[in-house]
């Protein structure tokens, strides 16, 4: 829901106590705020091995190539030739690094991902053309797209519309933007009912029990604002299993070394040599396109890892030194007292 994420002002949040467990990060996990209080651990890996000098030389050669040369080299190696120069350069560097480490035995060249599955979420919410500062966004579409990180394919999806309660009448702007009609939300279930269905869908996949998984979003808004606000409006506790997620904008910018201005959904797709497939601001279509970007990044050698969490009702960065943990098994949140 990129337009709402960009133009909306944060709604006023109900004040909470720092002792309220409903608003805290999981006790055994790290966020940027908690990590600052911990002594830093020494870096792992011995970079004195000659293979790292070979990698550095290869990187220097790649840095001097123009886009046409990069595409030719990718074609020779049977790699994807789509994408802008920064993308092609990173693709080649990742390929050579993996190959050299595997052949040298100096380090583990295994590029398996940290998770078995990644669940992409991109909510759609009520909105006005000019949202007032205290406007409360209610979720009206709950989509999920499941990526198998081993096959690098989208394997399933979930979509339910949600009945808004605070502002039950959709604005004309919201209908035009999302394509969600008044009839669709009038006939939908409440958020708590839809959340129960979403939890059941996740449980059927044995996520958090048999398989390690996490969530991925396009920015901080979906979990850090929309879901947080909706849980308060629905008088339910924020789900423990959604407290940490991958913000793909951060991952994309860090991996391909591009500025934040190039991490919007359409821009990421275009830089990877892809076009948007479907209807923009349809939550399910947005989720599928975000999943396409994530799959492309995994193919290019990116090891997607959790980089944000909810702490005291606000999104916080998770440092790279934090332990790699999958989301807990999904459970239907309890009602707030």
UniProtKB/TrEMBL annotation:
Its cofactor is Mg(2+). Keywords: Cytoplasm, Exonuclease, Hydrolase, Magnesium, Metal-binding, Nuclease, Nucleus, Phosphoprotein, RNA-binding, RNA-mediated gene silencing, rRNA processing. GO terms for molecular function: exoribonuclease II activity; metal ion binding; RNA binding. InterPro entries: 3-5_Exoribonuclease, ERI-1_3'hExo-like, Ribonucl_H, RNaseH-like_sf, RNaseH_sf, SAP_dom, SAP_dom_sf. GO terms for biological process: regulatory ncRNA-mediated gene silencing; rRNA processing. Residues 62-96 form the SAP domain. Its EC number is 3.1.13.1. The keyword Hydrolase applies. GO terms for cellular component: cytoplasm; nucleolus. It catalyses: Exonucleolytic cleavage in the 3'- to 5'-direction to yield nucleoside 5'-phosphates. Its main location: cytoplasm. It is found in: Cytoplasm; Nucleus, Nucleolus. It is an enzyme of class 3 (hydrolase). The keyword Transmembrane does not apply. Residues 1-49 are annotated as: Disordered. Residues 1-17 have a biased composition (Polar residues). This is 3'-5' exoribonuclease 1. It comes from Onychostoma macrolepis.
